[in-house]
Write a structure and sequence with these properties.
TIM Barrel, alpha/beta, 42% helix, NanE, 226 residues, Aldolase_TIM, EC 5.1.3.9
Length: 226
């Protein structure tokens, strides 16, 4: 399997997703860039970031492979939902463009295959398909994706939402696919990350447990209160 070099650099490592939810104090490109810099110091092999300003500033500050996306709209498909969004994410500095890789209809009317074909033809971008099931992943491969993430497992009707990572799906994908499978979603502990790699993941993306203080604080508050 021949891999594009930014993707190859992620093999066996931890990618830190540096994102803040709308309305939060940390929803600021400078803050997210600082979080990304700290993740690099800690040994991350890549960064995942949302929004053009965040992507651009992290690209300037951090010399790691950068997975970029743009969350837009209130439809089911909101992770880099259109070709226009994907082109903009690449132009902002992302090495790998992450987009919704499910089989659902996209807001601009293009198929996933047409979106990926045109994106690659015009930019040469590496594409990560955020999937919710094995069928999504297989369709994403046919559409031309370079790697597949389990990002949307449990967030579409195809899979139940497990409390931790969907290890069963990671294993199925790793066995069935000839492209890298990137584990993402509800990886809340170092043990979860190790289990994802053991299940066959090419790399692991962790966001909330590292970069979302409100959620981590809530976990501890809930534990203290029993």
């Amino acid at each position: 399997m021949t891999l594009p070099s930014p993707l190859d650099a992620l093999a066996g490592g931890l990618v830190v997703s540096c994102q803040a939810y709308p309305g939060e104090p940390m929803r600021n490109p400078e803050t997210m860039a600082q979080v990304a810099q700290s993740a690099r110091i800690g040994g991350a092999v890549g960064i995942r970031a949302q929004g053009l300003a965040d992507i651009a500033l992290i690209r300037e500050r951090v010399d790691l492979p950068l997975i970029g996306l743009w969350k837009a709209g209130d439809a089911d498909v909101f992770i880099t939902p259109t070709l226009r969004h994907a082109m903009s994410v690449h132009a902002a500095g992302a090495d790998i463009v992450a987009l919704d890789g499910t089989r659902r209809a996209r807001p601009d009317g293009l198929s996933l295959a047409e979106t990926i074909r045109r994106l690659k033809a015009e930019t040469g971008a590496i594409v990560m398909a955020d999937a919710g099931s094995l069928d999504d992943a297989l369709a994403a491969i046919d559409a031309g994706a370079d790697c597949v993430g389990t990002t949307l497992a449990g967030y579409t009707p195809d899979r139940p939402r497990s409390p931790g990572p969907d290890l069963e799906l990671i294993g199925w994908m790793a066995d069935a696919l000839e492209i890298p499978v990137i584990a993402e979603g509800r990886i809340h502990t170092p043990a979860h990350a190790a289990e994802a790699i053991a299940a066959g993941a090419f790399a692991v993306v962790v966001g909330t447990a590292i970069t979302h203080p409100a959620s981590v604080t809530r976990w501890f508050v809930d534990a203290v209160h029993g």
